[in-house]
Amino acid sequence: MTALPNYSNPVIQVEGLKLAYGDHLVLQNLTFEVQQGSCLVIMGGSGCGKSTLLKSLVGLLPPILGDVQINKKHLWGDDELRADILRDLGVLFQGGALWSSMSIKENVSLPLEIYTDLDETEVEDLVRYKLSLVGLSGFEDFYPSELSGGMKKRAGLARAMALDPKILFFDEPSAGLDPITSRRLDDLITELKESLGITFVVVTHELASIFEIADDAIFLDAQSKSLLEQGKPKGLLNGSKFPQVIDFLTRNDSSSS
Which of 244, 93, 225 is nearest to 172 (CA)? Predict the structure, then answer.
Protein backbone atom coordinates (compact mmCIF):
# COMPACT_ATOMS: atom_id res chain seq x y z
CA MET A 1 0.00 0.00 0.00
CA THR A 2 1.30 3.47 -0.87
CA ALA A 3 2.27 5.55 2.17
CA LEU A 4 0.72 9.01 2.09
CA PRO A 5 2.09 12.14 3.79
CA ASN A 6 0.59 12.71 7.24
CA TYR A 7 -0.43 16.35 7.07
CA SER A 8 -1.43 16.38 10.75
CA ASN A 9 1.98 15.25 11.98
CA PRO A 10 4.91 17.54 11.19
CA VAL A 11 8.26 15.83 11.79
CA ILE A 12 10.25 19.04 11.33
CA GLN A 13 9.15 22.41 12.70
CA VAL A 14 11.21 25.53 12.00
CA GLU A 15 10.29 28.78 13.73
CA GLY A 16 11.89 32.21 13.42
CA LEU A 17 15.19 30.83 12.16
CA LYS A 18 18.04 33.27 11.53
CA LEU A 19 21.30 32.02 9.98
CA ALA A 20 24.59 33.80 9.40
CA TYR A 21 28.28 33.26 8.86
CA GLY A 22 29.90 35.70 11.25
CA ASP A 23 28.55 39.15 10.37
CA HIS A 24 27.18 37.96 7.02
CA LEU A 25 23.41 37.43 7.30
CA VAL A 26 22.18 34.61 5.07
CA LEU A 27 18.56 33.98 6.10
CA GLN A 28 16.09 35.38 8.60
CA ASN A 29 12.55 34.84 9.92
CA LEU A 30 12.21 31.31 8.49
CA THR A 31 9.09 29.49 9.70
CA PHE A 32 7.79 26.29 8.08
CA GLU A 33 6.92 22.64 8.72
CA VAL A 34 7.73 19.34 7.01
CA GLN A 35 5.04 16.67 7.18
CA GLN A 36 5.70 13.02 7.92
CA GLY A 37 6.12 10.88 4.80
CA SER A 38 6.35 13.87 2.46
CA CYS A 39 9.06 15.31 0.25
CA LEU A 40 9.80 18.99 0.87
CA VAL A 41 11.94 20.74 -1.73
CA ILE A 42 14.02 23.77 -0.76
CA MET A 43 14.28 25.90 -3.90
CA GLY A 44 15.48 29.31 -4.99
CA GLY A 45 18.15 30.98 -7.10
CA SER A 46 21.89 30.88 -6.56
CA GLY A 47 23.02 32.45 -3.30
CA CYS A 48 19.63 32.34 -1.61
CA GLY A 49 20.81 30.11 1.26
CA LYS A 50 19.46 26.69 0.32
CA SER A 51 22.54 24.74 1.40
CA THR A 52 22.99 26.97 4.46
CA LEU A 53 19.48 26.07 5.64
CA LEU A 54 20.19 22.39 5.04
CA LYS A 55 23.35 22.63 7.17
CA SER A 56 21.33 23.98 10.06
CA LEU A 57 18.66 21.28 9.70
CA VAL A 58 21.27 18.50 9.88
CA GLY A 59 23.12 19.91 12.88
CA LEU A 60 26.12 21.52 11.16
CA LEU A 61 25.29 25.23 11.57
CA PRO A 62 23.75 26.62 14.78
CA PRO A 63 21.20 29.40 14.27
CA ILE A 64 21.63 32.96 15.51
CA LEU A 65 17.96 33.00 16.48
CA GLY A 66 15.01 30.66 16.23
CA ASP A 67 14.28 27.01 16.77
CA VAL A 68 14.39 23.71 14.87
CA GLN A 69 12.37 20.81 16.25
CA ILE A 70 12.68 17.30 14.84
CA ASN A 71 10.03 14.89 16.10
CA LYS A 72 9.14 17.46 18.81
CA LYS A 73 12.75 17.58 20.08
CA HIS A 74 14.82 20.77 20.03
CA LEU A 75 17.79 20.21 17.70
CA TRP A 76 19.85 23.13 18.99
CA GLY A 77 19.40 22.59 22.70
CA ASP A 78 21.38 19.96 24.57
CA ASP A 79 24.43 18.50 22.77
CA GLU A 80 23.68 14.96 23.92
CA LEU A 81 20.07 15.21 22.77
CA ARG A 82 21.26 16.57 19.41
CA ALA A 83 23.44 13.49 18.93
CA ASP A 84 20.43 11.25 19.56
CA ILE A 85 18.29 13.25 17.12
CA LEU A 86 20.93 13.10 14.39
CA ARG A 87 21.06 9.29 14.55
CA ASP A 88 17.52 9.28 13.12
CA LEU A 89 18.63 11.38 10.11
CA GLY A 90 20.43 10.48 6.91
CA VAL A 91 22.27 12.94 4.68
CA LEU A 92 23.30 12.64 1.02
CA PHE A 93 25.80 15.35 0.15
CA GLN A 94 26.65 16.52 -3.35
CA GLY A 95 28.74 13.92 -5.18
CA GLY A 96 27.82 11.21 -2.67
CA ALA A 97 30.82 12.01 -0.41
CA LEU A 98 32.02 8.41 -0.51
CA TRP A 99 35.38 7.34 0.89
CA SER A 100 37.45 6.73 -2.25
CA SER A 101 39.76 4.20 -0.59
CA MET A 102 36.87 2.01 0.54
CA SER A 103 34.63 -0.30 -1.48
CA ILE A 104 30.93 0.44 -1.74
CA LYS A 105 30.27 -2.33 0.77
CA GLU A 106 32.76 -0.83 3.21
CA ASN A 107 31.27 2.67 2.75
CA VAL A 108 27.76 1.47 3.60
CA SER A 109 29.03 -0.75 6.44
CA LEU A 110 30.79 2.09 8.24
CA PRO A 111 27.78 3.64 10.06
CA LEU A 112 26.60 0.17 11.10
CA GLU A 113 30.00 -0.71 12.51
CA ILE A 114 30.26 2.57 14.42
CA TYR A 115 26.73 2.90 15.80
CA THR A 116 25.44 -0.67 16.22
CA ASP A 117 26.46 -3.92 17.93
CA LEU A 118 25.60 -6.07 14.92
CA ASP A 119 27.97 -8.89 14.07
CA GLU A 120 29.79 -9.15 10.75
CA THR A 121 27.18 -11.37 9.11
CA GLU A 122 24.30 -9.12 10.16
CA VAL A 123 26.12 -6.04 8.87
CA GLU A 124 26.84 -7.74 5.54
CA ASP A 125 23.21 -8.79 5.15
CA LEU A 126 22.00 -5.25 5.86
CA VAL A 127 24.50 -3.74 3.43
CA ARG A 128 23.35 -6.06 0.65
CA TYR A 129 19.74 -5.16 1.41
CA LYS A 130 20.40 -1.41 1.35
CA LEU A 131 22.32 -1.69 -1.92
CA SER A 132 19.51 -3.74 -3.44
CA LEU A 133 17.03 -0.99 -2.50
CA VAL A 134 18.98 1.50 -4.61
CA GLY A 135 19.60 -0.89 -7.50
CA LEU A 136 23.26 -1.68 -6.79
CA SER A 137 23.12 -5.42 -6.09
CA GLY A 138 26.32 -6.99 -7.36
CA PHE A 139 28.39 -3.81 -6.97
CA GLU A 140 29.39 -4.40 -3.34
CA ASP A 141 33.11 -4.77 -4.08
CA PHE A 142 33.36 -1.87 -6.54
CA TYR A 143 35.17 1.32 -5.57
CA PRO A 144 33.72 4.82 -6.12
CA SER A 145 36.15 5.46 -8.99
CA GLU A 146 34.62 2.50 -10.82
CA LEU A 147 31.07 3.87 -10.67
CA SER A 148 29.20 6.37 -12.82
CA GLY A 149 27.94 9.62 -11.32
CA GLY A 150 24.44 8.27 -10.86
CA MET A 151 25.71 5.08 -9.24
CA LYS A 152 27.80 7.11 -6.80
CA LYS A 153 24.69 9.05 -5.79
CA ARG A 154 22.79 5.80 -5.25
CA ALA A 155 25.67 4.34 -3.23
CA GLY A 156 25.67 7.51 -1.11
CA LEU A 157 21.93 7.07 -0.63
CA ALA A 158 22.44 3.47 0.51
CA ARG A 159 24.95 4.67 3.11
CA ALA A 160 22.60 7.45 4.22
CA MET A 161 19.92 4.79 4.73
CA ALA A 162 22.20 2.39 6.63
CA LEU A 163 20.77 3.16 10.08
CA ASP A 164 17.12 3.22 8.90
CA PRO A 165 16.65 6.98 9.24
CA LYS A 166 13.15 8.42 9.43
CA ILE A 167 14.24 11.56 7.56
CA LEU A 168 16.64 11.88 4.61
CA PHE A 169 18.26 15.16 3.55
CA PHE A 170 19.63 15.59 0.00
CA ASP A 171 21.83 18.43 -1.25
CA GLU A 172 21.45 18.81 -5.04
CA PRO A 173 21.06 15.07 -5.73
CA SER A 174 20.75 15.59 -9.50
CA ALA A 175 23.78 17.89 -9.86
CA GLY A 176 26.09 16.69 -12.62
CA LEU A 177 23.75 13.96 -13.82
CA ASP A 178 22.31 13.59 -17.31
CA PRO A 179 18.50 13.94 -17.61
CA ILE A 180 17.83 10.18 -17.81
CA THR A 181 19.96 9.38 -14.74
CA SER A 182 18.43 12.32 -12.89
CA ARG A 183 14.93 11.03 -13.62
CA ARG A 184 15.87 7.57 -12.34
CA LEU A 185 17.09 9.11 -9.09
CA ASP A 186 13.84 11.09 -8.79
CA ASP A 187 11.88 7.87 -9.29
CA LEU A 188 13.95 6.19 -6.59
CA ILE A 189 13.24 9.01 -4.12
CA THR A 190 9.51 8.70 -4.77
CA GLU A 191 9.61 4.91 -4.51
CA LEU A 192 11.43 4.99 -1.16
CA LYS A 193 9.08 7.66 0.19
CA GLU A 194 5.99 5.69 -0.80
CA SER A 195 7.21 2.20 0.15
CA LEU A 196 9.12 2.97 3.37
CA GLY A 197 7.37 6.16 4.53
CA ILE A 198 10.64 8.10 4.69
CA THR A 199 10.41 11.88 4.90
CA PHE A 200 12.66 13.71 2.40
CA VAL A 201 14.06 17.24 2.48
CA VAL A 202 15.73 18.01 -0.85
CA VAL A 203 17.74 21.05 -1.92
CA THR A 204 17.56 21.44 -5.70
CA HIS A 205 17.27 24.02 -8.47
CA GLU A 206 16.40 21.40 -11.12
CA LEU A 207 12.89 22.15 -12.39
CA ALA A 208 12.18 18.62 -13.61
CA SER A 209 13.03 17.21 -10.19
CA ILE A 210 11.07 19.87 -8.35
CA PHE A 211 7.85 19.10 -10.21
CA GLU A 212 8.46 15.34 -10.06
CA ILE A 213 9.27 14.71 -6.40
CA ALA A 214 7.91 17.60 -4.31
CA ASP A 215 4.78 17.24 -2.19
CA ASP A 216 5.59 20.69 -0.84
CA ALA A 217 8.22 23.36 -1.50
CA ILE A 218 9.63 26.50 0.06
CA PHE A 219 11.11 29.33 -2.01
CA LEU A 220 14.05 31.23 -0.51
CA ASP A 221 14.68 34.75 -1.77
CA ALA A 222 18.25 36.08 -1.89
CA GLN A 223 17.22 39.75 -1.81
CA SER A 224 15.01 39.66 1.28
CA LYS A 225 16.98 36.75 2.80
CA SER A 226 13.71 35.13 3.73
CA LEU A 227 11.19 32.42 2.90
CA LEU A 228 9.05 34.10 0.27
CA GLU A 229 6.43 31.40 -0.29
CA GLN A 230 5.50 27.79 0.48
CA GLY A 231 3.25 25.39 -1.40
CA LYS A 232 3.05 22.66 -4.02
CA PRO A 233 5.20 23.63 -7.03
CA LYS A 234 2.33 23.39 -9.52
CA GLY A 235 0.15 25.50 -7.23
CA LEU A 236 2.89 28.10 -6.93
CA LEU A 237 3.36 28.12 -10.69
CA ASN A 238 -0.32 28.78 -11.27
CA GLY A 239 -1.06 31.09 -8.36
CA SER A 240 1.98 32.78 -6.89
CA LYS A 241 1.78 36.55 -6.45
CA PHE A 242 5.57 36.84 -6.41
CA PRO A 243 7.29 37.39 -9.78
CA GLN A 244 10.50 35.88 -8.38
CA VAL A 245 8.72 32.57 -7.84
CA ILE A 246 7.09 32.59 -11.29
CA ASP A 247 10.37 33.51 -12.97
CA PHE A 248 12.15 30.68 -11.17
CA LEU A 249 9.55 28.06 -12.06
CA THR A 250 9.29 29.11 -15.72
CA ARG A 251 12.96 29.68 -16.47
CA ASN A 252 15.12 27.69 -18.88
CA ASP A 253 16.82 25.13 -16.63
CA SER A 254 20.02 25.28 -18.67
CA SER A 255 20.55 28.88 -17.55
CA SER A 256 20.44 28.07 -13.84
CA SER A 257 23.41 27.37 -11.65
Answer: 93
CB 168 within 8 A of CB 174: no
For 171-183, letters b (16+ CB in 10 Å) and e give: bbbbeebeeebbe
- Strand residues in the chain grouped as ranges (E): 6-21, 24-36, 39-43, 65-70, 73-74, 89-92, 167-171, 199-203, 216-221, 226-231
Report yes or no: 206 and 51 within 8 Å, Cβ to Cβ: no
**Domains parsed from the chain with CATH numbers:** 6-252 (3.40.50.300)
Q: Where does residue 54 rank: exposed (0-12), middle (13-18), buried (19+ CB within 10 A)?
A: buried
Name the pTM for this structure: 0.87
- In this structure, are residues 181 and 150 in contact, taking their beta carbons and an 8 Å threshold? yes
Q: What are phi and psi of 232, to 5 degrees?
A: -65, 140
Please check the confidence at residue 257 and state whether its pLDDT lies above 60: no
Per DSSP, 163 falls in state T
| Per-residue pLDDT reduced to its tens digit, 147-201 | 988 888 888 888 888 888 999 999 988 777 788 888 888 888 898 899 888 999 9
Tell me the three state secondary structure of residue 93. coil
